[in-house]
Amino acid sequence: MTYQLALQQLTDSALPTGAFAHSFGFETYLDRELLFDEGSFGLWLGAFVGQQLTYSDGLAVRLFYEGADVGELDGLLSASLLPREVREASVKMGGRLLEIGAEVFPSPALELYRDSVASGRAAGHQPLAFAVVARSLGVPLKEALAAYLFATVTSLTQNAVRAIPLGQNAGQRILRKAHDDVAAAIEAIAHLTPDDFGAVSPGLEISQMRHERQRARMFMS
Length: 221
Hints:
Blueprint (H helix, E strand, L loop, with lengths): L3 H8 L14 H6 L6 H28 L4 H11 L3 H21 L3 H11 L7 H11 L4 H23 L4 H23 L11 H10 L10
Helix pairs in contact: 3-4, 3-7, 3-8, 3-9, 5-6, 5-7, 8-9
């Protein structure tokens, strides 16, 4: 299929979106010694995929594919991502993805979203930038969701390998176990309604908010 190589490029860990600089709150758990090894990080990752990625990013991608207005979804993401660092991370990585996409995978839909961001009518969140590019390339919804979710899992695992630290083999074991979490998330996303948007775990959000005032940090979020 013509989109497969493009999808691999979009989800490659070397894509320069800045994902290496973000922990999305796991560094807070690390600082409090609640996250310290392969098992504890795997538990956090499963919760992150099953909650925040499912009810915000993943649902946003699905709703966009089903025809929802990208500007409205952008506003919902800005409103639902309460931790400032996470909201800013989504916009920063989304901005880079929009820039890269415009150069290597241009499309009318992508230009419209970029124009909305440039004019201040939209923030430019990462999951929507990805969804616009992926749908323009003809990537089916389930494949787009799997690719986006697993790319996020991969980036976070690579960051945990450096930060905890974990061995490279441990990182691969975590990724293998995360296959089930991603599959469960895709199944859950298919049955959500717009009313479910933004329903995430308070514990995850509190850790992301605390990170902003953490004394020593390796990551921006």
